Amino acid sequence: MIPSEKLARVTAAMPFWLTYILPPLTWLGAVRGGAWVLLPPLATWYLFSALDAALGLNEQNADPQTGDRDLFWYRLGVMLWAPVQFVALFSLIWYMGHADHLSALEKFGVMFGTGVMTGSVGIVYSHELLHQRNRLERALGDGLLAMVLYSHFRSEHLLVHHVWVGTPRDAVTARYNEGFHRYYPRVLRDCPASAFRAERALLARRGLPWWHRRNPFWKYAALQLAMLGLAGALGGWPGLVFLAVQAGVAIWQLELTNYVEHYALTRRHLGDGKYEHVKPHHSWNSAHTATNWLLINLQRHSDHHHKPDRRFPLLQTYPDATAPQLPYGYPIMTMAAMVPPLWRRIMNPRVRAWRRTWYPDIVDWSDDNRACARRSRTGR
């Protein structure tokens, strides 16, 4: 176990700061054009995956009792990303309006690369920030989501996903044999509505109507309109297109990640609409070293759902006997998810093994496309 005093050193946190190479790489593509626009996806998807192959797994766990004071450098790296991304994104929107040296294809490449940055890092960092109670951190998380026009993710993730993961009520738990290309339009359709219903129900429990100012959807709308207004002011219609394209790329990456994290893993139904508690075996785990640097330990997802309020440096990894393991880090797994036959070949045998291990008494999984397996012969 890594002790608190070792975690407190700046050198221990530095690998997680490697993501700060992405804004300069994105800008380099905008200035140079040509193949340089490929640098952000090459770095995030391929470089970190290559480092995984070289470095292997990191199965060390930090002392989970470590206090925030000893996590200063980790927290600072996450919090600083919001202003850095804001400056990088909107300066690029302005610059692209004057970049006459770039072809239409090169401009699209810059937009795509920016979306890789805001999706691979920005949304992941917003996820970490929105799980904290500190108002500044949550505000920074809201700002990062507004930059990709996906603010409802906060409500959907905290009030729906973490409560109902592995059940039919969680849209982002991918069903067995459900390919990503069917999954993606479903979550784009269902998640905003489920997020709004969750906030409306929360307000109702407090005796307030849905239109009350405490409904965060008003804040979401204001922030997103502000981002759109700023993009339009800096870049006109091309600026709005830039903002929309990078947001689309970022959202696509987020939902690819959601697809991988819980594919076909379901919780036991206990009757009367109740399910067993979320346990480590209800999320796919990955201890790959470099991609966990890139994604600030998001791949230790089994522990994140087991202990949602645990900060990312303290997330624990688990052995095979406790949580199901992905064969590769998220970048490779999300690429495989884009090819459903390949995805099924890799993952379906693992799902079947998971079922035999954790729910050997369930004999009929025919309803699993609705994420609701029938109970065993004993009626449990």
Structure keywords:
59% helix; 380 residues; disordered C terminus; two-stranded antiparallel sheet; mainly alpha
Summed up:
The chain has helices spanning 4-7, 10-13, 22-32, 39-55, 72-96, 104-130, 135-147, 153-164, 180-205, 216-262, 289-294, 301-306, 330-337, 340-358; strands at residues 269-271, 274-275.
Topology:
Elements: H1 4-7, H2 10-13, H3 22-32, H4 39-55, H5 72-96, H6 104-130, H7 135-147, H8 153-164, H9 180-205, H10 216-262, E1 269-271, E2 274-275, H11 289-294, H12 301-306, H13 330-337, H14 340-358
Antiparallel strand pairs: 1-2
Helix pairs in contact: 3-4, 3-6, 4-6, 5-6, 5-7, 5-10, 6-7, 6-10, 7-10, 8-9, 9-10, 10-13
Transmembrane segments: 12-30, 36-57, 78-96, 108-126, 220-245, 328-346
Family: Belongs to the fatty acid desaturase type 1 family. AlkB subfamily.
Subcellular location: Cell inner membrane
Helix-strand pattern: HHHHHHHHHHEEHHHH
Tertiary shape: globular
Total helices: the number is 14
Average pLDDT reading: 94
- Uncertain segments of ≥5 residues (pLDDT<50)? 371-380
**First-to-last CA distance:** 38 Å
Beta-strand residue percentage: under 5%
**Neighbour order of strands in the largest sheet:** 1-2
Please estimate the helix content. 55-70%
Rg calc: 21 Å
Largest sheet: 2 strands, antiparallel
Number of extended strands: 2
Derived from helix and strand composition plus strand pairing, the structural class reads mainly alpha
> How many domains comprise the coordinates?
1
